[in-house]
Specification:
Blueprint lengths: L1 E6 L10 H10 L2 E8 L2 H13 L3 E5 L11 H10 L5 E10 L7 H18 L3 E6 L2 H10 L7 E3 L6 H9 L2 E5 L9 H9 L5 E3 L21 H12 L3 H16 L3
Helix pairs in contact: 8-9
The structure holds nickel (II) ion.
InterPro entries: DNase_TatD-rel_CS, Metal_Hydrolase, TatD-like, TatD/YcfH-like
GO molecular function: DNA nuclease activity; hydrolase activity, acting on ester bonds; metal ion binding
Protein name: TatD DNase family protein
């Protein structure tokens, strides 16, 4: 039983074979998948997938890279969809100072608007952070985002930052990078942070774990993330799979 908490089966890379990809995930013991939407087309596609598959859930939000294009209508659409029983979180949202395609001030405003909406509709949030840790932490504090909590998706920060996030009612989620030989920081954090605050994800089609690094990622590979964490913590694969799955269900309110 594995819970992939962050998958983009709504990406065009899966247009040709999403059914087979989902079948492979089921065959490898993936019991739940959250498909994350981040703009109009990916939100629409995520909502199609939740109607087709009982074990697929959706998160809906607006990506910081594209923040400059979010309109009031888009925010209204996200609010309407938040009432759907299979929408379990808002996001992904956050700040991305690496691509820098939207001005920082616009990104911050779009991030704050989505946090406020999440508090209004009482859903947890999925945070995307690239090279923006200090501003993310400040905004989460200022907006009192701990009221809804959520997940720091594909976490790559330090143990200190991970602890700050946990103190604010957030879970730490690891993906493919924790399996990379040269990924010192994620390995240290995965080893140190208590299992009851950890989640696993693929972020597919990106960030493919070892031994498939460089190929298209898919939810069936989430087992490699669980294996890496089990090895780092000296626990069994089954325990990591079960506990991270329990954590995800608790966070997303899935029975
Ligand atoms: Ni993502």
């Amino acid at each position: 039983m594995l819970f992939d908490t962050h998958a983009h089966l709504n990406a065009t890379q899966f247009n040709e074979d999403v059914e087979q990809v989902i079948e492979r995930a089921r065959a490898e013991g993936v019991s739940h998948i959250v498909v994350v939407g981040f703009d109009r087309p990916t939100i629409d596609r995520a909502m199609e997938l939740v109607e087709q598959y009982s074990f697929i859930y959706a998160a809906v939000g607006w990506h910081p890279v594209d923040a400059i294009h979010m309109t009031d209508e888009d925010l209204g659409m996200i609010e309407r969809l938040a009432a759907h029983p299979k929408v379990v979180a808002l996001g992904e949202m956050g700040l991305d100072y690496y691509w820098d395609q939207s001005p920082k001030e616009v990104q911050k405003e779009v991030f704050r608007k989505q946090i406020r909406l999440a508090k209004k509709v009482k859903l947890p949030i999925i945070i995307h952070n690239r090279d923006a840790t200090a501003d993310i932490i400040d905004i989460l504090r200022e907006e009192n985002a701990g009221e809804v909590g959520g997940v720091m998706h594909c976490f790559s920060g330090s143990i200190e930052v991970a602890r700050q996030c946990i103190d604010m009612n957030f879970y730490i989620s690891f993906g493919g990078p924790v399996t990379f030989k040269n990924a010192k920081k994620p390995k240290e954090v995965a080893k140190e942070i208590p299992l009851d605050r950890l989640l696993i994800e693929t972020d597919c089609p990106y960030l493919t774990p070892h031994p498939f690094r460089g190929k298209r990622n898919e939810p069936s590979y989430v087992k490699y993330v669980a294996e890496a964490i089990a090895e780092l913590k000296g626990l069994s694969f089954e325990e990591v799979a079960q506990k991270t799955s329990d954590n995800a269900k608790r966070l997303f309110g899935i029975i």
